[in-house]
Amino acid sequence: MFQNTQNKRITLMLYIVVILFAVIVLRVFYLEVIEYNKLHSLADNLWSKELPIQAQRGEVLDRNGNVIAGNIKVGSLILVNSQIEDKEKASRELSKILNVSYEEMYKHVSKKTSLERVHPEGRNLPSEIADQINSLHLKGVYVVSETKRDYQYGKLLSHTLGYTGIDNQGLSGLELMYDKELTGVNGSIKYYSDGKGKKLDKPEIYREPISGSSITLTIDLNLQLALENELDNAQSRYNPDGIIAIVMDPTNGEILAMSSRPTFDPSKYQEYTTEVINRNLPIWQSFEPGSTFKIITLSSAINENKINLFEDTFYDSGSIKVGGATLHCWKHKGHGQETFLEVVENSCNPGFVVMGQKLGKDLLFNYINMFGFGSKTGIDLNGEAKGILFNKNKIGPVELATTSFGQGVSVTAIQQVTAVSAAINGGTLYYPHILKEINSSKGNVIKTVKPSVKRNNIITNETSSLVRYALESVVAKGSGHNAYVEGYRIGGKTGTAQKVGIDGRYMVGNYILSFIGFMPANDPKYVVYVALDNAKNVVQYGGTAAAPIAKNIFETIISLYSLKEDNTGLPKEYTYLDTKYVTLEDVRGLSIKEAKKKLLNLQIETVGKGDNIEEMNPSPGSRVKEGSSVKLLLN
Questions:
Q1: Which of 2, 29, 340, 563 has the highest Cβ tally under 10 A?
Q2: Is residue 101 scored above 80 in pLDDT?
């Protein structure tokens, strides 16, 4: 009996041992096979540490592949405090190199954390500082490679580009709009350490960073540089409160150059006020346009057959009475009897009032809306304003009249450029854009921006042709003559708009002087807009201050793109202040006496001996200033 009981107990214990063993085996199997990856990952995370490697930010390129915003290599100081053996020595040596106090550095070195990024003292370190730190050979002190945004052209295109913060994140402008695309994927160096933070003798694992995508703009860097130089010269000469300049391709809406003053250096944005760095004036500032707006009235009146430029006439006495108000022409005594082409050439306010009256409120404001005023253009930049128009229900005779010549409405520069482009390109209103393409770090095209039409057939091709002719006449014979370039066809319109003060009254002696023009006048490829806000030390007319700046930009365009001369346009009507040009006739083979009759008002120099002329310099057909020298080689 006792023996049976003993055997049963032994058997039971055996079963229990077997079951426990089976449980242990199953548990080990579960941990080693089923849960292996999870537990291995947890153990790896427990023992491993990562030193971050910042990805390079994508570059910003111009339309020709030139780098506008790139990157430079810098270092960033990271401390693994558990590995630093002598914290006082490390603090003392690092404080000397970084030029910070010992106490401040000791706070970093003694902080109870696995990884301490020394911020901001240890960020964006130049290579010489990084080399000094590395030469200390201090355990636990690392300088990891990073990149810093490099705006190598300083203030160029600053409001459009925007700027980045200390962590290379986009904070404004294109840097913010395309931050997701420009920002890459950070890499790291993984190492292993024990529970006390001491580095283990295990191989490090390197995870390569992936650079961000690059963005290509419609901007032409060389044209942008020239534009910036013109604005710097204007700022120095006229000391205006602000300047705006835009160059756009009217056939597709591409912005070729754009800038404004005041400006800022994106790499030193902390030194400027928020008003300066956040206001991209070409798209943000709205103001009364003045006479440049007359292009819209002109286009509308021609398109509706309300006027014939060459046959219809108007008598300008110097003012016109509308709804109990007297509206004046800039010329006190008026221009007298004019064709409507001469009304445009003379920028005659009363003549444009009559155009507006012929159109009527509904027609004129329908065209104003179709040309894009009163709404945003849709340019691919943040911060665009939509301007201000009269409430259509509250428009009376006076409001209609003043709108006709650009007073009482508020528009932006980009609105004017896109609207005038539509007036001269056959009636197509494009969305202006500055992004051309986005490419991955491997060069693959991610996105291509194609021209996009906002509205078609605003006016007919015939109307557009007449508008181009009238505006070419303005430059050749009228108020825009200071934008005339010898041998090239340019059209345009000046603007002189009195500014409105905070009390709603017009300010005395404070104007926005502007000019908008295009070339070639018969087939426009470039629209140029220039506006100066409260320019000093200059006669207050757009033709006096803004038109010469536009002329310089046109001459840059001619040079950059090697545009050929075209003398088929309207000849300039010279004033006594203008420099006159003449075209050299071919006098080769003639006698000196015969040549002098053909080369009037020029200084003639002869080289060699003989009776007849073998060669001449400059060559025949060249345009030269009156009074300049012509060399004749005799046979």
A1: 340
A2: yes
